[in-house]
Design a protein that fits this description.
The protein has 319 residues and is an alpha/beta fold. 33% of the residues lie in helices and 22% in strands. The relative contact order is 0.15.
Amino acid sequence: MSFAPSTLATGTLDAAATAQRLPWSALADEIAELLHDSTVSVPPRSVLPLAQGGSLFLMPATDRSVAMTKLITFTPANAGTGRPSIQGDVVVFDIATGARQLVLDGPTVTARRTAAISLLAARHLAPSPQGPLLIVGAGVQGLAHAEAFVLGLGVKEVWITSRSAASAETLAMQVRALGAQVRVVGDANAALAHCPLVAACTTASSLVLHATPRPDAFITAVGAFTPTMAELAPALCLHVAQHGSIVVDTADASHEAGDLLQAGLDVAALPVLRDVVCGPWAPRTPAGPVLFKSCGWAGWDLAAARLALRQGAAQRPAT
C-alpha cells in the first residue's frame, strides 16, 4: 500500500506519513535488531483506568541514542461508532541534544508494530508459512495483519471472518487490492481446518476461537492484553500447550495474557520472542501447532521510532 508524504507540522507525521516510514519487512527486521540490542531499556508501562471502561497508556523506552514515549488512549466503547478505539501519539527524542525529533501517529504505530511482530514470529515459527491465512476480526489489526502477511510473507490467499458482515466485505476489498485471493466465511472455527496461518485480531470482548487447530497451525493472537480479556478458549490454549508450542512476546505477558492466564497456564515459564529470534530455542514438539501470544511492549514502539528516523533521513535530499 502506498501513501503520499504529508506532515501536520515540522516533525509531526499523520497516519499516512507514519505508515510510509514503517514498511512491513523493514519493521520486522528492526524489531529483530532491537531484540539483539543490549542498550534497550523498557520500564513497565503505566495504565490509568478511565471512566466508562477506557484506559490511558504511558509507554516509554530508550536505547543509546533515542528516547520515546507512546501516549495513547484505549476506548473499547468506540467500537462500531466510527471513532478509533486507540488514539494518541508517539513522541521521539534525541538523547544527545534532548530535542524532539518526531511525533508519530500512535494508532498507526500500534497497528503496524503489532502486525510486524506477528510477521517476525511467523518467519521463525510458522510450520506452513504459505497459508492460507485466516483473519478473525475485520478492524484495524485485521487489515494490518493482512498487509503484513501478504506483503511481508508472500501469502496468496486470505480468509476473513467478522461479527460484522459489512466490515468483512470492506476488508476483503482492501485485501484484494493487495493482489491476494480472498474468501469471506461465517464460521471462524470451521475455517481453522483449512488455514495453517491464523491471526486473531478482535477486541477480545468474547471468545472467538475454540476448535482444535491444525497440527501445522501458527496462530497469532493480539486482541487480549489484560487478564480479563480473551479471544481464545482455554481448551484451545491447553491443546497447543500439550501438542505444540506457545511463545509470548515478552515476559510482561505473565500478568497480561488473558487467553493463557484464563487457561491456567504458567505464562512465566513460556519462551519469549527474544528466545526465538536470538536463540537458542526450538519447539518442544516440532510437528505440533504454534501459538504466539502478543500483548504489546514499548520496545516494539521504540523499534518503530528508530526505523522512522532512519527512513526520514534516507528520504531527505542530499545537500
